[in-house]
Design a protein that fits this description.
The protein is built from 2 helices and 9 strands; from the N terminus they run E-E-E-H-E-H-E-E-E-E-E. It has helices spanning 44-50, 66-69; strands spanning 8-17, 22-25, 33-36, 58-64, 77-81, 96-100, 106-115, 118-122, 131-141. Strands 1, 2, 3, 4 and 9 form a 5-stranded antiparallel sheet that branches.
Length: 142
Amino acid sequence: MTIKKDSKALVHFNVLLKDGSAADSTRVDGKPVWFVFGDGSLTDSLESQLLGMESGQTKKFELAGSDLFGPVNPDNIHFMDINQFPVDVKLEEGAIIAFEQMGGGSLPGMIRELKGHSVTVDFNHPLSDQEIVLEVEVLEIR
């Protein structure tokens, strides 16, 4: 059976950066995920790479991070006063901090810049602006 527009596919995947370092993997916890095709949950770029694959097949390909995690949105970059952060939080560029959301839950934000009392926090997905390599293994197709 092959993946078609109305298929569901159980897959293992590895998300790698261009330098080969691992960013995410379903293999870490041994739990593959279901990809649903044609319902809008996957980007067109990702679907086009996977359509036609068969159960048991593996594939490795490059994608822009925005094709998996959405484009960088300038509205998701915020400037905050350093006094809004608890004193025990170590602020440094590249650090990812969990911010409490109204109504519960948390949202990760990356510290992009520290300048005086201003802290630039980016709430875009950290891989949105990266070129990535995706390795996919199709386990089952329905």
